[in-house]
Amino acid sequence: MKNARTVFLCQECGHRSPKWMGRCPSCGLWNSFAEELDTVDRAGTEVGDRGFGSRPVSIDAIDAHEKGRMDTGMGEFNRVLGGGLVIGSTVLLGGDPGIGKSTLLLQVLHRLAAAGLTVLYVSGEESARQIRLRAERIGALSPGLVVLVEVSLGAVITQIEVLRPSVVVIDSVQTMYSDTYSSAPGSVTQVREASEKLIVHSKKTGIPLFLVGHVTKDGSIAGPRVLEHMVDTVLYFEGDSGHDFRIIRAVKNRFGPTNEIGVFEMRDRGLVEVDNPSALFLSERPRGVAGSVVTAAMEGSRPLLVEVQSLVSETNFGIPRRTTIGVDHNRVSLLAAVLDRVCGFNLSGHDIFINVAGGVKIGEPAADLAAVASLASSYLKRPIDSGTIVFGEVGLTGEVRGVGQVESRIKEAERMGFTRCIVPRSASEGFSAGKVVDVAGVSTVGELIDRAL
Ligand code: TYD
Ligand code: MG
């Protein structure tokens, strides 16, 4: 039942319509209408109140004391949250369906419950029986973990008020439904309304809130992207169903560093923390094979060693192919052009396949030099010594530029038993030769090829 006046607004130009339209008559955009509460009355003035009801305060009188953090019982999860769950914070956990969002949060809630807290798991997706079976499988049967199967937003908030739990999980925000709006659950309007109400409630009561959101390619169901700006922390699950490991990345965090990652492995009893991610990603590395090279990528505050592999083969006909997995496509085209121009290669007559082993994605320019080394190694059919790691940014003229956090990258290489690091010349200064790791500086791509191949 509708109990408030709503209106459909074009999200692009703000055109108002009493009913949904496929195309905005004003700006011409397709599929841009979303239902919203009508806050403008006939005379054109704003009505309604959705605020916190707070007053202006002098900035030096604000209590900035962090209310403390909860230990979630999982080190890797604490790490992505910036050192534990902040009291009163709201966290969005996004990811593809089936990647492990429900499993992870159930495990976290179990650990909090085992520590003596009352925690609430609200599910709009699974039956109580299904949740119990999953909890049995991962050993999460604590009496303090309370399950509520509900999709009505009002009922969920009522139950939170009755139970007063220490943490709330909403799995998923796309199933929540408010009868203020006639739009279907999962639509932008419903997702936004449910999140807004839950977030305001969480801020008022100080109860930390996890919202689970599915990322869908289909535009008909609202992705969690519409709520990224409303929450304090946004975590995304990476990894695919073809691999067992899962990476959780903090893409936004008001209470900690962004881009911090937590690495987990999906086992038959739930997600298990990976203590040594570099070892996991290098475990099946071939030795002495052309095209394989290891680089040190910074993921948040932690260096991660990963293997970059290339296959360069002559193009049989037509336009050469460029296939990249885990590295940016344009970046690889650029680096191939640099190799052609500066080193006299003929990559424009070759197909290029380049892959980061294990399904890791690296976005850092510091991986450039490794991509170049890997392409050159495959093109020249000469392997790179397997005890070598390579990192540095490559410019258009083939110059090798400095990157940040050189020391921690080299430390990680040393820890993993590597004996030589090829780094930008500017970064190599200050590292004396003859230590455990030999640090060699290069200033051009040509120099890299001379040294490494
Ligand atoms: P799930 O947490 O339901 O994913 P999401 O909530 O993100 O949709 O994860 C489901 C997948 O995880 C499913 O394919 C089975 C697998 N899984 C395991 O491999 N081991 C386990 O212990 C559990 C509970 C799930
Ligand atoms: Mg789920």
Q: Could you characterize what this model shows?
A:
With 453 residues, this protein is an alpha/beta fold. It folds into 3 domains: 6-41, no CATH class; 69-275, Rossmann fold (3-Layer(aba) Sandwich), CATH 3.40.50.300; 280-452, Ribosomal Protein S5, domain 2 (2-Layer Sandwich). It is 25% helix and 26% strand. The strands form 6 sheets. The protein has a 9-stranded mixed β-sheet with strand order 8-7-9-10-6-11-12-13-14, with helices on both faces. Strands 15-16-18-17 form a 4-stranded mixed β-sheet. It has a 3-stranded antiparallel β-sheet with strand order 2-1-3, with no helix packed on it. Helix 7 (329-343) links the parallel strand 17 and strand 18. The protein is globular and about 70 Å long. The protein binds thymidine-5'-diphosphate and magnesium ion. The site of magnesium ion has 4 residues, from helix 2.
